[in-house]
Amino acid sequence: MARRDDPPTRAHGEQLAAEWVTFRDLLVAGRSADAIAFADRIVAESGDPLRVAQALIEKVAGLLNQGGAARPAPLLDRIAELLRQAGHHPRLSGEYHVLAAYAAFADGSMSTAVSNLVQAERVLRGMTEANQAAVSTWHDMSVTYSAMGFHAKAVDAMRAGRRVCVAAGIAEANCACLETLVRSAVARDHQGMSEDCVRELWEVVTFGRAAEPDLTVSDRTYLRYAAARLAAFGHRPAGGDPLPGGTTPDSPDRSFSQVVYLTEVCEAIAEDRPDDALRLLGEPAASGSWLGEAEPHRLRSIAMSRTGDHAGAVQAERAMLRVITRDDGSLRDRYIDSVNARLDQDRLRQIAQEHADAAMSDPLTGLPNRRRITAFAAELAARGADAAVGLIDLDGFKAVNDTHGHSSGDLVLQRIAGLLAQSVRGQDLPARFGGDEFMVLLPETGLAEAREVGGRITAAVVGEDWEALVPGTPVGMSMGWAALPAGGDLDAVVRAADEELYREKRALRPA
């Protein structure tokens, strides 16, 4: 069936490009409310999945810029479905994963955020599109990596975007990523590398001066912050040349407002008005994470030193160190999680190779599927071997999908698959039975020994840091076991395991 507005390919591409330009102009000017309204009009009038997907992507970007309590999970689910309908579109798929990463980060779900960024980068590395829209996607990936504290990855994404600028014949200022560079510089200062911070801020100012006519309002905002931060350090250009300044946007977007506010703090320090700086730092507008939670503490320390309150300055420095120590620990934990996930994936690949047949594998988790379960049971029967059958059902999974969206639900299922793979023995078969149900077949194993294996699986699931992956929605599991005699009726045994599983669920429910 044809869509209501299915245009010719060239016209379709031109329409997408024109609408993207409108979205970009609104968002980089801090007019997210107008971008959201424009997206809603396109969604209401269009039946084309790519137009609607792009509009919803930009709507999510607007919601994230505004901050607040909006949860974009339902919109992200809809975007994912539209992109599946539309087929392969690397730029929009990459942008979707970048936004899903930022939404997860804003929600406190670090593992989900990292997983989405990895997927985004894989998609974008294969993108052949070379235009401003493609550059903007790399830009968004850069600032998302930066906001999460992965500064080296953020700079790599910025460089990839600038390479696309060169390929497209457009100014590299279109991927200036001054937010990335400023955040990286102040992070160095927080870590005690103030000379490196000053050097990097001067690089931002030098680049910004040369590129200022081509900079977006957003980049100009961060350029002014770099200049004000240098001035607060007492650094000004030789010869009396002024630092870049000018006006800052009058915008309700929180992505601008805290930076603009802290710029005023830095300017007050630079103008020897430390009491004004401290007053400004006492206002709610000074708090937030756009420049890192440590930055207001650092500015407070500088201002207090200027007033002669050295004890207060030391307290502010300690508060800053508590923040960066916490963040560095979080980054290490995420690295450890990624290594664990990689080891789990190695084990899943080994299982897939042992049971190699695409028709017998679950595409989401990589585990064997129901067809492989049936075939494996037949193989056991043929050699006269009995087995234990364990049926696993996840607890709290519906809440994951409802709260965080189906992309996060998929990550939970993949993580469960990894935990199963690391918990069972080499001869065992872990499999996805369907939905949020899994099964393990343990050849030549009695129920007592099987329940020991089940205990390891349960401990792995209970011990997983679900709060990092899907905050506020704990994931648990229930398990039922039944014996499968050689040549026995697999369906009857599965029903018996299912009955035990639900007895366990009922026993766990509060009276």
Automatic annotation (TrEMBL):
Any single Gene Ontology cellular-component annotation: plasma membrane
Protein origin, superkingdom: Bacteria
Instruction: Domain (GGDEF): give its ranges.
Output: 385-511
Q: Which CDD domains does this one have?
A: GGDEF (cd01949)
GO molecular function per UniProt: diguanylate cyclase activity
PANTHER family named in the record: DIGUANYLATE CYCLASE DGCM-RELATED, REGULATORY COMPONENTS OF SENSORY TRANSDUCTION SYSTEM
**What protein is this chain from?**
Diguanylate cyclase
